[in-house]
Amino acid sequence: xxxxxxxxxxxxxxxxxxxxxxxxxxxxxIINALTPNAxxxxxxxxxxxxxxxxxxxxxxxxxxxxxxxxxxxxxxxxYFASTPGHNVVLDGTERMRQRPIKALVDALxxxxxxxxxxxxxxxxxxxxxxxxxxxxxxxxxxxxxxxYISAIIMVAPLMQNGLTITLExxxxxxxxxxxxxxxxxxxxxxxxxxxxxxxxxxxQYSPIEFDIEADWSAASYWYEISALSAGCISxxxxxxxxxxxxxxxMKYFEKLGVDSQFEDEELTLLPSPEQLSHIExxxxxxxxxxxxxxxxxxxxxxxxxxTGLATLKIKETDRLEAxxxxxxxxxxxxxxxxxSVLIWDGDQHPVFxxxxxxxxxxxxxxxxxxxxxxxIPGLIINxxxxxxxxxxxxxxxxxxxxxxxxxxxxxxxxxxx
Length: 417
Prior knowledge:
Elements: E1 3-6, E2 13-17, H1 22-33, H2 48-57, E3 63-65, H3 70-81, E4 87-91, H4 102-110, E5 114-117, E6 126-129, E7 136-141, H5 146-155, E8 163-168, H6 174-186, E9 192-194, E10 197-200, H7 216-229, E11 232-236, H8 249-254, E12 256-263, E13 266-275, E14 279-282, H9 290-299, E15 304-307, H10 319-329, E16 335-337, E17 341-344, E18 356-357, H11 363-369, E19 379-381, H12 394-400, E20 404-407, H13 412-416
Parallel strand pairs: 2-11, 3-4, 7-8, 14-15, 18-19
Antiparallel strand pairs: 1-19, 1-20, 4-6, 5-6, 8-10, 9-10, 11-13, 12-13, 15-17, 16-17
């Protein structure tokens, strides 16, 4: 289904209960599954990615398809490889079969894992025979997705010799690695991370009770709405001192006219007169909010240069090309440099029709572009169901904030009257 979106008729004044963090949820599920006599997690994120993880962990089937859940593919590869008795074929969507996993498989094989490619070398599907891994020392490119690194770190305590990982080069998405290490420490495993070397001891996880906080990535779309509307938005269940790297939204959106005010676990977003005329950000540690920031800057006519985006090319889609293509429909001429830099110098071209935004099976494309309806009433978002990957309540929450989301197949005249 496609939605035609109209902005609120009045100034936005909304209170939103954000979904729980899927990044924290997926890590908690893996660590808990590796914990002897683990306590049941009381609540986890309710979305496609976490459902895929839960389904796989509870499955007795030999063939497991995790759909489009990239985190689940990487975490479960390490999990199944390191737990004896699990013999599975791990598969996903056609796009998942195009997303590389060789670096993780090679590192796990170096630790003694038994993993084979069933089709194309370096890509899923994977045939995995679970076993006790020896561990030892491995190296990984520091520029790869942090999910590869987190996947092997979480299973490393089970390895007979523990694990020392050397990350070669400049580390990307460091906050997600730190999140993983922090959560492992909650479960009683103390690791060290000095320079580019991570050391994980051989030991057992200890059963604990663990509460999952709300999702800062989901908060980004409300920061965007605040920046574009100058309304008042309260977001519930967020933590100020969060283990999520995307909490740096507070700092980044100060430059885009949004003031963040915390009281207990409720964050209020208010308009601020502070707004820069040009933005340069290194998002290598927060790549998931690149789409939100790019769309916000364009709508506010703030030229930008966003660097550190190399991992965006292997996400649900090539997010750099997707952003360039769809922002062109809104009149903005972006360019990509070195497959990792996204630039808008202020160049625009005429647009003569209401834009229809393609989402490329990518939840973040839909959610980042929908707020543009504040400036382009009647903007159409295609394939709105994609938000179920991380934020199923997104359209409901937009409606609660005063947006009107209607079936785009209806004649435009009927809606606007």
